[in-house]
Amino acid sequence: MEASPRTLTRRVAPRFCACICACVSLRAAAASGQSPTPAVEPAEPAAAAAEPEASAVIRGRGAPPRGAGDVNITVGQLASVPRSSAGDLLRLAPGMFLSNGLGEGHADQVFLRGFDARSGQDLEFTVNGVPVNEPAHPHGQGYADTHFLIPELVESLHVLEGPFDPRQGDFAVAGSAQYTLRLPARGAHIQYRVGSFNTHRVLALWGPDGESAGTFGGVELATSDGYGQNRSFERATANAQYEGRSGSLTWRVLAMSYGIRYRSAGVVREDDFQAGRIGFYDTYDPAQGSEVSRHLVSAEVDSTRTASVLRAQAWASLRSFRLRENFTGSLLDVQQPFQSPHAQRGDLIDQAASTVDVGMRASARLRTTWQARTQSVEFGAYARHNTVDSTQQRLRATTDVPYLTDYSLDNSVSNLALYLDAELRPLGWVVLRGGIRADLFQYDVLDRCAVRGVTVRGAPLDQECLSADRSGYRSPTQRRTSGGVAWQPRGALFLGPWKGVTVALSAGLGARSADPVYLGNDQQLPFSPITALEGGVVFDRRFGSLALNARALYYRTHVGQDLIFNETEGRNTLASGTTRQGALLAARATNPWLDLAAHVTYARATFDDDGRLVPYVPGWVARFDGAVHRALPWRIRGRAVTASAGVGVTWVAPRPLPYSERGEAIFTVDAQVGARWAYYELGFIAQNVLDAQYAWGQYNFTSDFRSREYPTLVPARHFTAGPPRQLFVVFTLHLGAAAARHGAPTEPAR
Amino acid sequence: MKRRALALALLVAGSAAGCGDTTGSERVSFAVEVGGIERDAAQPLAFTSDQGWEITLSEARVALGPLYLNTIAPLESDRRSPLQRLGDLLLPSAHALGESHLSSGRIVAQVTTQVEVDALAPALVAVPGGGDGVSEPALTGEVWLFNRDGALGGAAVRVAGVARREGVEVPFEGSLVIDQTLVTTGGSLDTARKVRGIPAQVTPAGGGALRVRVDPRGWFEGADFRELTAGTAREGRYRFTSQDNVGRAFINRARARAAFGITFSPTR
Predict the structure, then answer these.
(1) Interface test with A, best of B12, B22, B23 (most A CBs within 10 A)
(2) Shortest Cα distance from A608 to chain B (angstroms)?
(3) Within a domain: residue B11?
(4) Are residues B84 and B186 in the same domain?
(5) Mean pLDDT across the stretch A175-179?
C-alpha cells in the first residue's frame, strides 16, 4: 500500500506523459507537463504532502480519499472535448448535469445526486481554496457563479460527492467541487475564437519560463450576439497567480477580476411556441439581463515538512450583482387594498447585491508512523464574513421603473468552523479517514423595509417601508440576529485494495446555512442539517499503458429543510425535508493517446411529508467524454503535426415536473478537432452537432405573458431554450521556449 | 428460484424507473359547454321579478369568457344551508372560514376564449378550445366580462323583452358595457368586469366537461320599469341606461354570482 518514491514515479510518470500528449490544444497545453517541478497537488495540498500515494489518488488513481464518489479529475486530454466554461468541466464528474438557459453569465444550474442545486446552493465550490458560493445572495443562498474562471487555466477538478470530509464547508450538501488553476504549459499562448452568432473571444495566457506551473497570468475578452433573441454578452476576465518557493515554504498570491454584461431571454411558454405565437429562441421580455463583477485576491502559504504540513490562506473579494428576470409575465401584481387602483404592472424582478467577502483558513497536518504505517491528524480552522447589501424590487414592464420593494436587507453573515481530521491505518488493508467539524453560523440582518404589504388605517396608499403598523408608530427597520453551531461528524472506511478493488463506506452530516431572507429573529438552528450515506466499490488498475478506473456506488442523503425553485421569487424558496437515494456507475480509461470517460447516475428525490417526487431533479443522467490525440505521420519543415479530436455526449432522462408530468429528454453531442504545427494551432468546434432543439430548463407554473387575448392563470409548461448548433474556429499562437521545441525531432510530438 | 429472482429484478427495476411516481396533482384539459338555463326551449322565457313585474325576454346575450375556477370559498351566505344558518343563529361562531373570499385565491382552471351565449337557448354549445387547469378542487368560479362586437354590439351583455305589471306593458332593451363608468372609488376596471364567487365546488378532470349556464331571471331584481315610460320609446322599445333604476339594477344584477351556474361532469 505504501508507495515508494520509485513506485510513485511509476504511477505519476504515465500521467505526466499523458499530460504532455495533451499539448496539442491550448487546454491540453495546460497539461503538457512543462513545469520545472513536479506538481504539488493544490486541491488537497495538505493531504497530498502528508501522504505520498495521495498524489496518485488525486490524479484519479489509487484509493479514493473520502468515498467511492470522491473523484479528482485531471482534465488532461479531455480538454479536447468542447466546453464553454469552467463550470462545464463539472460534467466530467459522475452524475453531474448542468444547464444554463438564463444567460451567458448566469450561474450554472447544477444537478447532482438528486439535487437541483439551482445556482449552487447544494454544491460547495472553491477555486484554489477560495470559496465561491455566496451567502445571503439575492438570487439564492449559496449562489455560485464560476464564470470568472478562465477554463483553460483549470488543471484539475476535485469533486467529492457527499459531505464526508471534515474540510468541506457550508453548502457541501450534494458535495463539493474544488477547482485548481495552474498553467503547466509555459510560455505565451494567444488565442482567437470566432464563430456562430458573431461570437468573438480573445485569450492570452502567460506562464513565465523558469517559474512553476502555479505562476501564470491569463486575460480574456469575449463578446457575442448570442443565439436567438436577447442573449448577447460582453465579458472580460483576468486570472493571475504567483507561486514562489523557498525550502519547505510555498506561497501563492492569486488575483482575479471579472466583469460581464449579458442579456437573458428567460422562459418561453410551450403552448405559445406550439401555437406559433413565439419562436423557440425568442423572448417575451427583452429587459431581462444582468451585470456582474467580481474582484478577488488571495494569499496562501504552505510549509511542507516530513512530519507536518502547515497551511494558511486569506482572501478578500468585492462583488456586485444585478439581475433582472421575469418568469411570470404580468401575473403577480394583483390589486392590494393599500395600493391605488392599477392594472398589472409586470413581474420583472430586479435583484441587486453588493458584497464584501473576507475569510481565512488554516490547517496543520501532523504525521507519525505506527505499525510501520503512516498515521496522520489534521487540525483546521475556517472563518468567513460576508456583508451583503441586497434588494429585490419589481419593475414596471417596458420602463424598468421600480414599483414595489420585495425586500431590502443589510446582511452580515459569519461562518466560523473548526475541524479535526484523522487518517488511521490500523491494518495494511484498512484505512479510516474522518473526524468532526463544527460550524458556527452567525447572522445580523437589518431589514430596511420591515413593514410592507399591510393595511394601516389612515396611511396613504402606495407607501412602502411604513413607519407604522396596526399598533401605531414604529421604526421602518428591524434587526434580526441569530446563530447556532452545527456539529458534523464525517468519516470513511476503506478496505483494500485487492487487485485494484477498494470497498469504500462513507457517512457524514453536513449543513447548509439558512437564507437570511427567511431567517427568524433568534432562530436556534440557522442552517439545514444534512445526513448522507454512501457505499461503493472502486476499481483502479493499470494494464500496460492503459490506466483504468471504475466505480459503482449507492448513496442516500436526507436534507432537513430543502430549497425548491419558486418562479414567483425567481429563486429557490423553503420547502419541507427531502430524501435522495440512487446509484452511479462511472469509468475512465486513459492511455497516452486516448482518454475515455463515461458515467451514468440514477437519482430518486422525494419529499418526506408526502413521499412525492421532488420536481426538476432528473432521474437518469449519462455522459460520455472521449478524446484521441496523436502525432500525424507527416512532418513539415522537420516538425511534426499533432492532431486531436474530442467528443462529449450528454443524455438526461425526462425530469419530473410539477403536476405529475415529465419533461423532455435531452440528448446533445459536442465535438472538436484540431491540429498543431510548431507555434500554430487551429481548431474547429461544433457544439450541439445534431442541432437538437431542446429545452434546457423545463418548468410547470403559472404565467401570463399577455400572449393571448385574456389572462392565463393556470400552470403551463415553460422552457428555457438550449443553444442550437454553434460552430467556431479557434486559432492559437504559442510562443516561448516550449513552443519553439514543439514537434521538433528531439521533442516528443504527442 | 429463477422466477423469484426475475420478479425481484422487475420490482427493483420498476422502483428504479420510478413507476407511478408523481409530484402531486396533474394538469388536465376538458371540454366547456355553455348555454342558458334548462327549460322548454319552445316556450319564451318568462318570469316574475321581486317587484312583481312579469318579464318575458326576447333577447339575452352574454359575452362569456374568460372564465376561471378558484380555490377561494364563496361568500358565507352562499355556502351555508338553511339548517346551518339556523344553527348559526343559535350558536354564533367566529367567521374566519368565510373570510377567505376576500383573498385572491388560486386559479385551478381556466377558459381563455370568449363565446357569445344565447341565454334563452337551453341547449349547451361547445366552446372551441375547451379549458385547462389542474386536478385540484375549486370552490368558486369567476367570469370576466369583456365587451364583444357582432350581435352584442360592443356590449358584454345585451337584453330585450317586455315587462308587464298591473296593466302596464313596458317593452325594453339595454346592455351592459364594461367601461370606466362602472369603476367605483378605489376600484379598477379589472375589478368591475369580474364576477367572482360563483359557487362551483368542482374538481377539473381530464376528459370531463365544464358546464356553464347563464340565468337571466335575476337581472332585473329591484327594477321598477315604470320609470322607463317617462322617456321616449324608440322603435317601440324603451332603452334603459345607467341613469335610471332599471339600468342600475341590470348593471349590478347581470354581474351577480346568481346569474351564472357552474357544474362539472367527469364525462362529456
Answers:
(1) B23
(2) 12
(3) no
(4) no
(5) 94
Q: In the prediction, which pLDDT does A226 show?
A: 96
Grid cell of A360 as nine digits: 481565512
Closest approach of chain B CAs to the CA of A695, in angstroms?
19
Please report, in angstroms and rounded to a whole number, the separation of the first and last CA atoms in chain B: 49
Q: Is residue A749 part of a domain?
A: no
B24 CB neighbours in chain A (<8 A) are 610, 612, 658-660
Which DSSP string do the residues of A571-587 spell out, in sequence order? EEEE---EEEEEEEEEE
pLDDT above 90 as % of chain B: 68
What total of structural domains would you count in chain A? 1
Indicate yes or no: CB of A660 within 8 angstroms of CB of B26.
Answer: yes
Q: Is B83 domain-assigned?
A: yes
CATH number at residue A74: 2.40.170.20
A55 or B23: which leads in pLDDT: B23
Look at B66 and A711 and tell me if their CB atoms are within 8 Å. Answer: yes
How many Å lie between the alpha carbon of A334 and the closest alpha carbon of chain B? 8
Whether residue B146 is found in the same domain as residue B56: yes
| Mean pLDDT of the region A387-400 | 92
Domain range spanning residue A583? 5-741
Query: A702 to chain B: which residues are within 8 Å by CB?
Result: 107
Beta sheet of A70-74, edge-to-edge order = A70-74, A154-161, A175-181, A123-127, A130-131
Strand ranges, E, within A637-679: 639-652, 656-657, 661-662, 666-677
* Domain that residue B79 falls in: 75-102
Residue B9 domain flag: no
Partners of residue A489 on adjacent β-strands: A436
Do B27 and A702 count as a contact with CB atoms less than 8 A apart?
A: no
Which residues, numbered 14 to 73 in chain B, qualify as contacts with chain A under a Cβ-Cβ cut-off of 8 Å?
16-18, 21-27, 65-66, 68
**A-B Cβ pairs (cutoff 8 Å, strict):** 86
Instruction: Note the pLDDT tens digit of each residue in A115-160.
Output: 887 788 889 999 999 999 999 999 988 999 999 999 999 999 999 9
* Domain annotation covers residue A733: yes
All cell numbers assigned to A644: 486531436
Residue A27 has pLDDT above 60, yes or no: no
Q: Is-contact A114 A581, C-beta < 8 A?
A: yes
Average pLDDT in the A216-239 region?
98
Q: Are both B95 and B217 inside the same structural domain?
A: no
Question: What distance in Å separates residue B196's CA from the closest CA in chain A?
Answer: 15
ipTM of this complex: 0.82
Residue in chain B lying closest to A708 (CA) = B112
State whether B122 and B179 are in the same domain. yes
Of the candidates A661, A700, A712, the beta carbon closest to that of B110 is on A712
| Cross-chain CB nearest to B186 (options A341, A614, A716) | A341
Q: Are residues B98 and B154 in the same domain?
A: no
Q: Domain count of chain B?
A: 2
A588-621, pLDDT tens digit by residue? 999 999 999 999 999 999 999 888 999 988 999 9
Q: Do the strands A468-469 and A472-473 form a parallel or antiparallel pair, or are they unpaired?
A: antiparallel
Which residues on A lie below 8 Å from B132 (Cβ)?
714, 716
Residues 6+ apart with CB under 8 A from A351: A138, A139, A321, A322, A323, A324, A325, A390, A391, A392, A570, A571
